[in-house]
Design brief:
single chain, globular
Length: 91
């Protein structure tokens, strides 16, 4: 699983808060993922994101324009097919 956070260079504090929330959600769920924080306008344009910060899960934009809450991030992770398959094997 890959999680990207994209924000403008001047709004780095909002990107850092989003990164902290993502790390907290991953830790609480016990899931491993690649997490990247990009502070790049070109990356925003390439992904057609016009407001920041934005949260992408496996290259799909899930939230843009606000810092996602931990419970929202958990719901995005739980929707992923690999996560569902892993939980099915355990149960």
């Amino acid at each position: 699983m890959r999680i990207d956070i994209i924000c403008k260079p001047e709004s780095a504090s909002r990107g850092d808060r989003a990164l902290q929330n993502v790390r907290q959600a991953l830790e609480e769920m016990g899931v491993q993922a690649e997490v990247h924080l990009f502070q790049d306008r070109r990356k925003m344009v390439d992904n057609r994101i016009y407001v920041s910060p934005a949260l992408l899960v496996d290259d799909v934009v899930r939230i843009a324009g606000r810092v996602p809450e931990v419970r929202e991030i958990k719901s995005f992770i739980a929707e992923r097919p690999r996560y569902l398959q892993r939980m099915k094997d355990v149960a």
